[in-house]
Amino acid sequence: MRSTIRFFAVLALILVRFANASAADPLDLLREAVANIELGTYDEAARKVEAVLIADERNPLGHMVLGTIYLHVGRLDQAEAEYASVLQEKTDEWRAHYAMGIISLLKGRRADADKHMALARQQAHNAEDFETLTSYLHYLSGEPVIGATNPVSDLDKQIQAMALIKKGSLKEAASLLAEITRNPAPPGFEEFRAPLVTFEAHRPIALPGGKLTWKQSEHKDAPIVSGEVQLTADASRTSNVAFIAYYVDDLCVGVTNCYPYRMSWDTTRHTNGLHQIRVEGQDSFGRTITSKTMWVRVANKEPAKRVILSGQEADELWERIWRCIRLTESRKLVHYQLARLFERAGDRENAVRNYEYAAAYDPDYADTRKKLLELTGRKPGYAEVHSGPTGSKMIALTFDDGPNERTIETLDILSRYGVPATFFLVGFRAEAQPNLVKAICDAGHEIENHTYSHPNLTTLTTREAEIELAKCNAVIRAITGKACKYFRPPGGHSDEATKQAAAHYGLIGVYWTVNCSPWEGQSHVMLATNVIANATDGGIILMHNGEPATLAALPTIITELRAKGFRFVTIADLLGQ
Fold first, then answer.
1. Quick one: CA dihedral 448, 452, 454, 457, positive or negative?
2. What is the domain extent for residue 343?
3. ω into residue 548 within 30 of 0, thus cis?
4. What predicted TM-score, i.e. pTM, was given to this entire model?
């Protein structure tokens, strides 16, 4: 069958080396899509999967990845349809059966869940995950939980611990939960991006959640083609076109510089389904003139042989997708339950520590926020300070934005002059460099909260601001064992939402009397001169950790202010707390 497709009002962008043009590798696209799922960037993931499924609409790995995107964001019907498409192509794909079982549980269809999990278990290489899932289902239904004598996986340990709590074996439960906390977890107090256990019968699984605004392209009006198709470009409305190139799914299939710019396209070399044709042109200097694209649906009676994605790289992708759908322990719940056990045992310090960790995952979880206020004795209100009391000639040096590669230099100067200081640390930096945090703490300095990711807090909701503060609290507590009393909003930007968030944790906002920021990018002489000239009794000096001008000015500032009778103290000492 021979047909003709004409392109009007052409054409653009032709690469000089047409022969080197190639379509994106489907494995590369799917690898990137899975990475996007792991990061929670679902729109980017979906666009990459769509490109794979346009080229091969029956690709089982592509449908598995798309189904997992839908599962994570809670679109269960669409996820179920995608996993069903996987099973049409690979009837023995146990991971698709497992995912269908998870969806059935979420929809309250226990019989369907059991059926899919039984099929998955028959075909999987490792039965351990299914035994753990059975234990979880027994817990939810009130049946006895029969687990391994020495549980290995963190999920199995959590299930066994929850069953022990039901029995009243609290010490054994606490021991298992503590074991889980010693194992690696995602940074930033983020849960694993996978379905999580909740231990709630009415809502047995929590999904990662996230935004998905992408919509699948349908191209219902795409013309149907088969056999050999004549492609023709009409460049009469565009002057100076010297070359015309034709692409199918980003793969160059032909180049011509002869009017009327025709070429034949053999559709039997492509799989049945949607394909994008792009026609592009350049002038004789290689400059882009114009371009046009259209979609067609190839429908040959004897379609091209499909390329089955297999081998080690494909196997690794299947394994990564498995980790995205596999039922996983909830670290938030682990810390919350540990906190309750420590509280019942009268261990206030460890109870507060674990409630703080639970709040870092989700400040709204259960009564976490209330418990923190009760156990710390802090009052649920907001306070801020811009200076300390006068009369004692005390002054506080504070350093923001650390730790960083020049923190040690700052510590060396402070040590040489015997000066205590307060460091307002950024959570993600502290998390990445715990040894520097410990060095600050071991030197006797005060460490306080400067948010987790250093955002402008006025751009956030109350809950978002609270998460920033809670995560930074938890990071600092995890490294130093000490709680934060104060916080400083990045740039001093705060609003009512910021104040409400801080009030939940009794954090006091700390501002300044002297801000070195305008001079830190200039000479150290100007910086030192301005600090010395503006220093006041009860003053708070804002500097930035490791700024070259600050490091150079610090000895002069310390020497001159001491000569004026000032005594250097931490914020807590300045405020008498």
1. negative
2. 142-193+330-377
3. no
4. 0.82
Tokens 């610090």 belong to which residue?
Answer: 554
Residue 517 sits at φ, ψ, to 5 deg, of -50, -45
User: Is 544 assigned a catalytic role?
Assistant: yes
Question: Can you list the pairs that 463-468 forms with residues at least 24 positions away whose Cβ atoms lie under 8 Å?
Answer: 463/363, 463/364, 463/501, 465/497, 465/498, 465/500, 465/501, 465/502, 466/363, 466/500, 466/501, 466/504, 466/505, 467/360, 467/363, 468/427, 468/501
* 400 catalytic per annotation: yes
Q: Is 125 exposed, middle or buried (CB count within 10 Å of its CB: 0-12, 13-18, 19+)?
A: exposed
Write out the DSSP string of 506-535.
TPEEE--SEE-HHHHTS-HHHHHHHHHHH-
**3-class state of residue 316 by DSSP:** helix
Q: Which of 72, 335, 450, 544 is catalytic?
A: 544
Is residue 16 one of the residues assigned to a domain? yes
Catalytic entry in 129, 362, 400, 401 = 400
Burial class (CB in 10 A: 0-12, 13-18, 19+), 77: exposed
Cβ atoms of 256 and 244 within 8 Å: the answer is: yes
Are 524 and 411 in a shared domain?
yes
Q: Is 384 exposed, middle or buried (0-12, 13-18, 19+ CB in 10 A)?
A: middle
Please tell me whether residues 388 and 367 are part of one structural domain. Answer: no
| SS3 at position 9 | coil
Query: Do strands 288-298 and 273-282 pair parallel, antiparallel, or not at all (unpaired)?
Result: antiparallel
CATH of the domain at 270: 2.60.40.10
Residues 395 and 249 in one domain: no
Position 239 pLDDT exceeds 80: no
pLDDT in tens, 525-553: 999 999 999 999 999 999 999 899 999 99
Partners of residue 263 on adjacent β-strands: 231
**Stronger pLDDT, 105 or 221, i.e. the higher one:** 105
157, pLDDT greater than 70:
yes
> Is 472 found in the same domain as 355?
no
What are 100-149's pLDDT values in tens digits?
999 999 999 999 999 999 999 998 877 888 889 989 999 999 988 876 56
Nearest to 358 by CA among 331, 320, 325, 379: 331
H/E segment holding residue 289: strand 288-298
362 and 422 both lie in a single domain: no
- Supply the CATH number for residue 545's domain: 3.20.20.370
On whether both 392 and 445 belong to a single domain, the answer is: yes
Q: What residues have CB less than 8 Å from 217, skipping those under 6 apart? A: 50, 54, 274, 295
On whether the CB atoms of residues 505 and 469 are closer than 8 A, the answer is yes
Q: Please give the tally of structural domains in the chain.
A: 3
Question: Which token pair is 191?
Answer: 């849960």
Does residue 251 carry a pLDDT above 90?
no
Q: Is 246 in the same domain as 161?
A: no
Q: Please give the Cα distance from 339 to 349 (Å, whole number).
A: 9
- 472 with 564, same domain: the answer is yes
